[in-house]
Amino acid sequence: MMGRTWRRRCRRKCSTDQVVSLGQDKKFQQLVQWMKHNGWSQVGRLAPTDFPSTGRGLKALQHISSGDILATIPGKLLMTVETASKSLFGDVFRRNKLLTQQVLAAHIVFEKHLGEKSFWANYISSLPEEIKTPVFSSSAEIEALPEHLSSKLNTYRSNVSELFRMLAESMTSVEKCSHCDMYFIPNPYRGLFFVGVVYNKLSSGIY
Predict the structure, then answer these.
(1) CB neighbours (10 Å) of residue 65?
(2) Is the backbone of residue 20 left (phi > 0), alpha (psi -120 to 50) or beta?
(3) Across the chain, which distance is largest between two alpha carbons, in Å?
(4) Average pLDDT for consecutive 10-residue bins of the chain (207 residues)?
(5) How far apart are CA 168 and CA 83, in angstroms?
(6) Which of 99, 160, 110, 151 lies closest to 131, judged by CA?
């Protein structure tokens, strides 16, 4: 028979391995209300969920057959290259020939800067602060990887940092932001830019 110490360890492990429903999360509720107000309606029975090993996702509440439509989203709710081109920094994006992921991540950064005045405020506030991918690993975790993996990961992180540097230089060269009447400096949003690049990379099939 196992002792109390084993049972406590098991309970701690089980508590960290639990699937957590996000349906009652205030940010998700506000996101759903905003989507409904702009023409969205639920098709499949899916629930926003935080999975212990993969992070946020959708959990099916019914059997899914081949060909079933899981979700539909009105086009006007999507943040795309087209909506980015219509923003204050649209000319910057076009003039500098930025990558798609770079433009979309920058689009998120600027809309975050607008706060509640942004059409996508509810969507942006629901984005995770980090994503469970190797890109957000700590230095100790990266050092523990085999050299061929850590080398590739460090190269990718360096590339994203360079994309941000190029973007920052481009955006600070434009006219003052009409929102704050100051020159927009994206440095405080560097972490969000990283999330945006990775998030859009993972979601590239949608765009």
Answers:
(1) 6
(2) beta
(3) 72
(4) 46 58 85 93 85 81 88 90 82 73 80 88 84 75 89 84 75 60 54 62 43
(5) 20
(6) 160
